[in-house]
Amino acid sequence: MTIFLVLVAILAVGATAFLAVGRSRQDVGSGQRGEPAAVPGLVEPTPTLPPVLLPERPDAADVRRVRFSLGLRGYRMDQVDEVLDRLAAALAERDALIEGLQNQLQARDGDQGGDSR
């Protein structure tokens, strides 16, 4: 008898939840062209937000300026921040290395140009 009452209680709770979800979807209204209604509590992405873009050749400052929109099912912010920090550091290191090599090349070319005169 106890098992029967537990099953009846579970079915009653399930039916109540099912009816509540059905009513809340009707309250929101139906979507356009037969699309399902939006579920309350979930925010649709705003198409007017600018895309998150980087220049063709981003530098460390470009990566540091990137900001993502928040979403219900978004990425973990701490992980995204860590990756962006590491990427910015790698780009800064690369840029410093390139600048150092260019300076060495210019110095070498300047020494060779002075020898040929």
Chain-wise SSE layout:
Elements: H1 2-28, H2 60-65, H3 77-115
What features would you describe in this structure?
62% of the residues lie in helices and 0% in strands. It is mostly helical and 117 residues long. The longest helix is centred in the C-terminal third of the chain and has 39 residues, at 77-115. It is rod-shaped, with a radius of gyration of 30 Å.
Uncertain spans: none
Q: What is the average per-residue confidence, as pLDDT, rounded to a whole number? A: 76
Biggest β-sheet strands, sense, barrel: none
Strand content bin: under 5%
User: How many separate helices?
Assistant: 3
Helical content band: 55-70%
Distance between the termini: 108 Å
SSE pattern, N- to C-terminal: HHH
Shape: rod-shaped
- Please give the radius of gyration in angstroms: 30 Å
Strand element count: 0
Q: Which secondary-structure class do the elements indicate?
A: mainly alpha
Observed structural traits:
single chain, 117 residues, 3 helices, mainly alpha
What is the gist of this entry?
The chain is built from three helices and no strands. The relative contact order is 0.06.
